[in-house]
Fold this sequence. Notes:
Elements: E1 9-12, H1 17-28, E2 33-37, H2 42-49, E3 53-56, E4 68-71, H3 80-87, E5 91-94, H4 95-103, E6 107-112, H5 117-130, E7 136-138, E8 150-151, E9 157-161, E10 174-179, H6 187-190, H7 193-205, E11 211-214, H8 218-223, E12 229-233, E13 240-248, E14 251-258, E15 261-268, H9 273-289, H10 293-301, E16 311-316, E17 319-324, H11 329-342, E18 347-351, H12 356-369, E19 375-379, H13 395-405, E20 409-412, H14 418-425, E21 431-435, H15 443-449
Parallel strand pairs: 1-2, 1-4, 2-3, 4-5, 6-9, 6-10, 7-9, 10-11, 11-12, 12-13, 17-21, 18-19, 18-21, 19-20
Antiparallel strand pairs: 7-8, 13-14, 14-15, 16-17
Amino acid sequence: MLFDGSDKVHIVGIGGSGMSALATILLQRKIPVSGSDLRDSVVLDRLRAGGATVYIGHRSEQVGDASVVAYSSAIAKTNPEILFAKEHGLKVLSRAELLKVVVSQQKAILIGGTHGKTTTTSMVSLILLNAEVDPSYLVGGELNEVGASGRSGGGEYFVVEADESDGTFLTLRPYLSVLTNVEVDHLEHFGSVERLRDDFRSFVTASTLPAVVCVDDEGARSISDGVSRLTYGTRDDSDLRIRNLALAPHITTFELFLRGRRLGQIDLPVPGVHNALNATAAIAVSVALGIDFDLAAQSLSRYLGVARRFQLKRVTDGVRFVDDYAHLPTEIRATLQSARQVSPNRVVAVFQPHRYSRTKLLGVELGEALGAADIAVVTGIYGAGEDPIPGVSAESVFEGARAILGDRAIFVPRRSELAKTVKKLLAPGDLCLSLGAGDVSLLESEIALVEDD
């Protein structure tokens, strides 16, 4: 199916990053949009300004005269708006199904992997914008340079952050698949490690062009073995190889070689080896699409990051508050490496585990990853809609951190006590790093409200 001016789309959970981006694209295509969410936000204000009708709370009458009702993966099937749509014979689409319709008329460049997707997608989108090929894109975060996570362009390419957590990455036909890494996660969806690996292999195998694959990551390297691919990384056998990597507080510099031929230098104004790899993935996409290297490199030199990816929130009383979405061990290690790159002083990491199932699987390893901080503070699990699992708590994460840091690991199980505890720990010169995919992103503003004793 395709939407036209006679359709009206109602989106349940319209304030989420993925659904709000899809709503933005539909509005830009002159398709009427309404939607609902539990809480008001700046994102909803932006959608209202774009012409959407937005409701706070979920009620069946809000569906109105919509012909299509779409819902995010966080919405229960018992939601009154979804039930109303089914009872009245309306077309009901999941996020993945809505995305498939939206992308269907363009060549899909799908960015997949356990982590690094949002950053890599934003880098590729920025390059294509500067190349004036008028791309569409959908990113799971806000691009700082262009101020929106979704765009409908008239060109031939649609860049998509392809989410594996609900199988979305297999619902789209890729013109070009990009695989940043493969680690064990989202087993609540996959069911087994074998199914996870099989699905990621299907993702790269489906690519029309040779898939872009990071061979520094053993998971991505092994599942794509024998598949037509353009590889990248620091390894000697990478098709697109990083050399002479230099990490400074405010810039990451490296040279790129394509099968032994020097392309040039990248000056990336965000820290971390992981970001050098993400940028190289974006350059590999440029190579695959025939985009000039110098233009791509210039685009990356202006890349300022994505919200909740090593995002500087505030500097107060000599303390820098940085927030990052990292919620897996590899992500935490990479983010702490970035923190070391930019800060010569103490790094105080504050971590909120995300999901009971993930904490059950990775609790101790998450804590061990926090061992690269000077001080690690662990708070209670953010359930993200999951029911608690008996015997699973954030204490396992704390124990993993304490095994490395000793008494420099601190457990604050009550989220309500976190800001007050962290504020007492901080001193001028510290970098306070909030980590996790939940509401720990609010920590900086909560600390600002704590009254001095």
